[in-house]
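Hi C.,

You asked whether I'd gotten around to modeling the 231-residue construct. I have! Everything is below, sequence then structure, no commentary in between.
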Amino acid sequence: MNPELRDKLADAGRILASEGQGDYILGHVTVRLPEDPTRMLMKPASIGLEEMTRDAIITVDIEGEKVAGHMPRHIEVFIHTEVMRARPEVQAVVHTHAPYAVAFGALSRPLQSVSHDGVYFAAGLPVFTETTDLIVNQQLGKAVARTLAKHDAMLLRNHGIVTVGRSLEEAVFLAVHLEKACKIQLLVESCGGAKAVTDREEAIAKKKRQAYEGRYQQEFAYLARRGRAGR
């Protein structure tokens, strides 16, 4: 049953929605089952990210088949399964239609380190361009995984974002900060573009100082508390 992991996945959905990444009933997040890495808990289709509950969450296998749960499965399950198949160290995957990231991706410009948020992606931010449609089969899922490669975040052109983590907290952290980085750069672009940007060497050093598992867990816990306080 994994009640604690299910509750954490539900918290992840509420955090993403509260950070502006909800898109009605679209968007999804998964986390591997620790006792069976070929299966994962997943937000079901037909409800919003913020509506997830312990009992609503479904279980899918590495082939994308639903193996437990009463609610329907998202047709884009293959984003999650094929990334996890290609990256055994990945424990969680987030896919949302984060609006600022979608808008920024349409510019076809590199993401710059114009804020602390941008430095988390200083090593590169791949862009998937094979289709702007939904990722509805294993072939497309494998293509997404190939584009992601060893990176932990990517843009799907005119579609959304994918972030991954060695923990659920890391995947959510990267989704939240990728959207913020895109928002800040869009603000800069609207004023003519950045005149001052953190150089790559310093950006990588800043990332090492600011991006670590303890930080992911602390921020996740804060955002979950903030969400509960607002209800």
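If it helps when you're writing up: The radius of gyration is 17 Å.

Thanks,
B.
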